[in-house]
Fold this sequence. Notes:
By secondary structure, the protein is mainly α. It has a single domain (5-394), classed as Sodium/glucose cotransporter (Up-down Bundle). Helix content is 77%, strand content 0%. It has 20 helices and no strands. It has helices spanning 10-30, 37-42, 49-76, 82-96, 98-108, 114-122, 128-160, 164-212, 216-226, 237-245, 255-263, 270-298, 313-321, 324-361, 370-394, 396-403, 406-423, 429-454, 459-476, 487-496. The radius of gyration is 22 Å and the shape is globular. The chain starts with 9 loop residues before the first helix and ends with a helix. The relative contact order is 0.18.
Amino acid sequence: MNVYDKLTEPVAMAVFVATLFLPVVVGLLALRRTKSQSDFFVGGRAMGKLVVALSAVSSGRSSWLVLGLSGMAYKLGAGAVWAIVGYTTVEALQFVTLGKRLRAATQRYDSITLLDYFESRFGDDKHRIRIAGAIIIGVFITAYVAAQFNGGAKSLSAALEIPMAWTLVISAVLILIYMVLGGYVAVALNDVVRAIIMLIGLVVLPVYGLIAAGGFDALWSTLGELQPKHVDPLALGLGGAIGFVAIGLGSPGQPHIVVRYMSIDDPANLRFAAIIGTFWNVVLGLGAICVGLLGRALVPAVESLPDQDPEMVYLVLSSQYFGPALYGLLVGGIFAAILSTADSQLLVVASTAVRDVGEKILNIKALADETTKLKASRWVVILSGIVALVLAFVAEDLVFWLVLFAWGGLGASLGPPLLLALYWRRTSRAGVLAGMVTGALTTIVWKLWIKEPTGVYELIPAFGGSLLAVVAVSLLGRPPARADESAPAASESDDRA
Length: 497
């Protein structure tokens, strides 16, 4: 079964190619709005509520939602619903709690990056937090970007039947063009376009499939006959459900997600963004699960799927149910979704390199000029993209080994320090540094030597360890001298918003 055969039809191929190049057009439109470093990395803190809502969802989910979650539902059945409960709940709360405080605090300190905020909040003149954070972000996110490049290139290679090396280059060039042109604005606007395409695929496809299958009752009956556990959301057991829900613990520590809150034009608009973002998360998540369940009923044996890969079920159903134009749009949308996280994360790498390392740690004098900052930011995006491209090509196994716990590593390293910095005035500089290091090391150690015998997702112990480290070290030291200038100020801003 070749799910890409329909792309040979002229209409399907034309729509597919147009979808690939649409982000470049958006990048050209965003060029006039990108005049400074702040514009390039946080959209000048002038992004609308709808853009922030859809961009936060799109950048956080990408191909994991379209391909990964549908494949998970194909294998596990209704129990896959627990995979969306954690991140949907946490991100709904983040918009109106963490998001509002972070937006107010970063504007107050004129912070462009997360590490900017930490250094200003704790008066870290020796840049210890910024250095540790830059290393953590550099390691986890660069590998993550490389993996996204690799995934996008594999999809494009299979669709167009051209060598992997060529599709890697095409993937990198397409994404770098619009990023260099429009920076954060281009990335955020493209996320909105991708979210709409994902909505088409994950709403229209399951609705059409349910009608073709004879309705929900008929689907449920078929699944029950094939495998009773597929219709039982509790079949995973308590441990499995907790492991899935715990995915949400990683959301507060994802720089490419929390930067969306920093970019909104008015903190008060985060309430509306929370409603839209949560609705989008629920609809897309349930749609992906429904696609997986439909696929199980339609193709009961995984051996009948292309390469025996459950993650191909979305493409199988799209090929069977849709005509050339819509099919070309959805296949192009998958490729775009794969890169939607990559561009956001690449922007984080660039902001870390230029703002945190070059401007703040190394104190490069040339970066004092705003025009020079913007040029340097664009060049770093290109260089970072080339590094990720090379890593994706020569170290595929290493990349995918790292990406399995990149979400957990970032979530555990940056999440607890950020939460406590915003909400606990007793948090100290040493505590934040201890939490970062503890979260990163625990993630790596647990993944390598402890996860397999215990079956516990590494984010859970790493997040807990990081939280305890921040609290313990903060309490052991002297109260921070600037405590009265931090958390209360953010709280007051919340009230005003």
